Amino acid sequence: MLPSKNQLLRVLFILTFHISFQVAKAQNLQEVITNLKAELTKNPDDKKRASIYADLTWYYASVSVDSALQYGKKAIAVTENVKDSTLLSQIYSDLGAVHFRNNDFKNSEKNYLKSYQIRKQQNNVAGIAKLNNNLASVYQSTYQYKKAMKMYLEALHFFESKADYKNINTTKANIGLLFVDLKDNNNAIKYLTEAIAFFEKQTQTVEFDNKLCENYLNLGKAFQLKKDYANAEIYYNKSAAICNKVGNKQGYAFSNRNLGNLNTLLKKDSAAAQNLEISKVTRKELNSKIDSESNDIDIAQNLIVQEKFEEAKKILLNILPVFEKENSKENLLSTYKLLTNIYHHSNQTDSSDLFFEKYISLDNDLVNTNVFKDTAEMEKKYQSLNKDNEILSQKSKIFKKNVMVFSLLGLILMGLIYYKSYQNKQKIQLQKEILHQQDLATKAVMNAEDNERKRMATHLHDGIGQLLTAANMNMSVLDDYKEDEHNFANVLHKTQDILMEAMADVRTLSHQIMPNMLIKNSLSDALRDLISKTNSPKLQIDLKMEGLKNDLNQNIQVVMYRVIQECINNTIKHAKANRVEISLIQSNTMIEAIFKDDGVGFNPLKISSKNDGLGLDNIKSRIDILKGDLKIKSAEGQGTSIVMKIPI
Question: What is the pLDDT of residue 497?
Fold first, then answer.
C-alpha cells in the first residue's frame, strides 16, 4: 500500500531500543555503518558476527531499506547457528522496524510477533513492553487507534513502574503522534514537547539525534494542524537540520516534504518547489518501496496554487488508479479533494460533484468520531488513575506519620486516662461517635455531589461535546466551498441544526442542575410546577402548603425540592401507587414535609444509596447536614410515609 501523509509521519517514529555499543558524539549513521563493516574484516567469531549483522540491520533502516533487509537475513542465519535466542528476538524486532519504515505493515507485524513469542518464552516482561510499543505503531498506521492506544498505555505503565525514563519518553512521543492522527493537537503538542525536552537534555548520540529528528517533525505537524504555521516551520527546519546531520535520509526527506507543503500553503512557490525536489531526490536515494506517487500529490497541490490546473489534473488522474488499486485511503482523500477544486474552477460541475461526493464518503469513513472519542478517553482515564494513585500514596504516607504521632500521644495520655472515671470515658466515647457520624454524613453528601458531577460531565462529553465536534468538522470544510453556494448552504444549514440540538441539550442539563422555577420564583412555585408536570390519570398527587414563605433559605429550598422530587420518582418507579399526598408546613422555627403514598411499600432496612446520588440514604445525609430529621415508615403492602423536619 502506498503511504498517506499521516503514514509518512508514523513511519518515522518506530521505537528504537537496540543499541549494542556506545556511539561517539560526532558520529553519524554512515560513520557507524563504516565502523561496523570494518569490524567484519577482522574475522570475528560467529557470535560477534551475528551481533554486527544485527546492528547493520538497524542502522541501515534509515539509510537503505534493501541493505537493511539483506543484513537482517544474514543476522538470522548466523544467530540461529549460535542458538542465541535473546539476540534472535532482537533481530526480528529490528526487521519489524525496517518493514515498518518501508510501509510494509503486514511483514512488520509478522516479525514483531516472532520476537514477541521468543520473549514470552523467556518471560522477558521488559522486552514484551517494548514490543507492545512497536506493535501499537503498526496498529496506529492501519487505523486501529483504540488497539494502539491500549498497547501504548500498557507499555507506559510498565516503564513508569520501572522509572525507565528513556522508554517513558519514547512512549510519550508515540502517544503524541497518535494524538496527531486523532487531530487532538493540544494533547499531541503536550506529549511531544515533554518527550523532546527529555531527549534534548541527554548526551547527543546517534540514537538521541534520531529521536529529535523524528519528534521535531511530528511536533511541526501538530502545530501545522493547529494552524500555528510559524512554529510548524521552526520545527520542520529543526528536523531537517538534525536529520541531515545524523544522516537520516528518511527523516530529511519527510521534513523537506512537509516544508514544501507548508510553503505551498503560504504561497511561497519557489521555496515549496525546492523543498519537494529535495524530498524526491532523497527518497530515491533511500531506495524504499515508498515511491513518487504520494509526492506527486504535493506537486499537484503546488501547481493548483499557481493556477496551473491542467498540469495538476494530468498528474492527479495519472496517479489516481494506483491509489484506487492499492486502496490507499488517505492518498485517495487528498486526490479527490484536489480534483474537486480543479473541476470547480473549470466549471465542470458534474465532475466536481462526482469527486466531492467521493471525498465526503471517504472522509466520513476515515473520521470515526466514536473511535477518536473512545481512544482519547482511554488516555484520560489512565491519567486520572495515575493521579488517584499519587493521592493514595500521599495519604498513606500521611496516615503512617499520623499513626506514629498519635501512638506516642496515646502512650502519654494513657497515664492520665487511667485516673479518669468511667463516666468521663463514656462521654469521650460518645463525642467520638458523634464526630464519626458527622464525618460519615459529610462523606455521603460529597459522594452524592461527585456522582452528580460525573453524570453531568458524561452528558456534556457524550452528548453536547459530540455535537460540537460534529459542528466543528462541518465548519472546517466551509472554506473549501465558499465559492460554491449550494454546498456552502447545505453544510451551513447542517451546522445550524447541530448547534440548535446542542443548545437544547444545554437547556435540559441546566434545568436538571437547578429548576428554572426554583431560580426565578420560590419553592412553592417550583413544587406546583413539578406536580403539574407529574400528575396523570394513573397517579393523582395532592399538594398542601401552609405558611410557606418566599424568603426561605436557598439551601433549604433546594434540599426540600430534591427530597420531594426523589420521593415522587421512587413512587412512580417502584410503588405502583394511585394517590400521593404531600404537605409542607412552615412555622417560625421549622419547616416540615410529609409525603404519603398508597403503593406496595418496601422494607426501609434494605434501602441504600443510589448510584445517581439521590437515594434515600443520601437524602438523609443532606438533611443531617442541615441539622434536620428524616423518618421513613413503610411495610410491604402498606404504602409509604416519609416525614422530614428541618430547623429554620
Answer: 83
